[in-house]
Design goal:
By secondary structure, this protein is mainly beta. It has two domains: 69 residues, no CATH class; 82 residues, Thrombin, subunit H (Beta Barrel). A hairpin with a 2-residue loop joins strand 8 and strand 9.
């Protein structure tokens, strides 16, 4: 049995984080079942975990070690997505978007690395848009002239636009 180095509780998420032997494990309070997919492995050579703390909303886990290191881990990825017919575009990491064909067992048909961490996303028949504050980036996800996309295609940035005010939502049309 490994010694417990630190424990942190987040009331809003109803979760407990436990640091032991170079690993932070997460448990749901009440059931005490480990959420093994959310495990954080702390690098060897940085020391043992000396402090473990969550932001109030539970979106960031901060870890300090006896070797003087500080780590910040995003524990909740914002859920941004949009759908058009059987296609969906979603934020697959903080700065990556995936276009998915839901009719083909959620096959990824395109990915794009973004310059920003967007706060809105929308998809249309050939393009999707991501934006933050007063800026919107437009990408072509469907190849020109293609009626159906059966393989992963190249997603291409086609434009970036700055607006006079804050853009909260973009609606794509045909």
């Amino acid at each position: 049995m490994s010694p417990i180095e630190q424990i942190a509780h987040n009331k809003d998420l109803n979760k407990m984080a436990l640091a032991s032997n170079g690993c932070v494990k997460f448990y749901t309070c009440g059931t005490w079942i480990e959420e093994s997919q959310d495990r954080i492995d702390v690098q060897k050579g940085v020391g043992s975990v000396t402090q473990l703390d969550w932001t109030k909303d539970g979106s960031i886990m901060s870890i300090t070690t006896s070797g003087g290191y500080f780590f910040g881990f995003l524990t909740v990825v914002p859920q941004l997505f949009s759908a058009y017919k059987n296609y969906a575009v979603l934020l697959s990491s903080l700065t990556e978007v995936s276009v998915i064909d839901c009719a083909r067992n959620n096959m990824i048909i395109g990915k794009a690395e973004l310059e920003i961490e967007p706060n809105h996303i929308s998809i249309g028949p050939d393009h999707f848009a991501v934006g933050i504050n007063d800026q919107v980036w437009f990408y072509r996800w469907r190849p020109i002239g293609a009626n159906d996309v059966t393989t992963q295609s190249i997603v291409q940035l086609v434009g970036k636009r700055d607006y006079m005010g804050v853009v909260k939502k973009v609606v794509m049309n045909e």
